[in-house]
Amino acid sequence: MTTKTFDPQDLTRASETLRAYDEWKIFTHAKADGDAWGSSTALYVAGKALGKRVSWHNPDKELSDRYKHLAGFEAHETLEKFDFPDEVGVLYVFLDCSNEERGTQGFDPSRGLNSLNIDHHEDNSQFARVNCVDGSASSTCEVLYRVFMAGGWEVTRGIAESLYTGIFTDTGSFTFSNTSPLTHRITAELMELGADASYLSDVLSQNKNSADFLLWSRAMSRVKMFGPGNIFALSILYKSDFDETGADMTGTEGLSSMFMTIRGVKLISTITEYPSGEIRLSVRSREGSPFGAGEFARTLGGGGHERAAGASFKVSINDAMSELERLIMQKYHECIDTH
Ligand SMILES: [Mn+2]
Fold this sequence. Notes:
The chain contains 11 helices and 12 strands. The chain is of the alpha/beta class. Manganese (II) ion (MN) binds next to loops.
């Protein structure tokens, strides 16, 4: 992990870098969430308005219908691998990616390609030529808005709605501890620029399809709480749950955060078995947890934010719940012993 502290000048540098190129190829991470969608569509639409050639990509084949309201949604291109040719006038832009492995494969940082990395993950590896990473920002959309302001760019209503979407989803509707006074000020400005907060809240949070709801009910029925005062919780979704409910992989978005609403729970992990057989963990934590979600995910080779993180879990699906409970309790005892 490279530790480079954020410098407000990085915002100006990012907007000048974008200005300097005729073509932007935008990339965001796989299993795109609201922040990935919001930042990619906002930059796509802004680039078009500036007369740039713009495209945006990630590896997803299934797209969540939650973000269909965003201008620029239809421009999404599925791209699993790309060879990133060194072309004059072309800038590769990475949004909401903590490292080059998070999205379309094939980018080699050592080649020194014209590239820009705009993000808010504290563990960002600063893999691009120009890096604009503010680990204290709520979302990539929040950083991107400041890039637009630094460049004096026009923020249209469509762009404002995209940026609002990313901030709204990455802050858990302004409930997570990453919600700062600045987040609220920016959100207020986005409303003044035309983002309709009540409409967006409807589309984003009161819009769960019935298949996803059935999927969530399965995860809810399997919640296991444990540890001192039941501060830890686990749940699991099997491959068959997706087949039987008709939900797709995008249906798990928001599930772990919903489990954080259980009183007394400080850390939750949801296990998901993918159609490929891969098992992934999503981890959430809050103030008062003996260790953070990010810290725990990193012990398993994963990463993310201190309060929201993920990792690949290399166990048999039948042992996943008990093995994860054991690892969490082991980590808990380590923390207790060192205090
Ligand atoms: Mn984000």
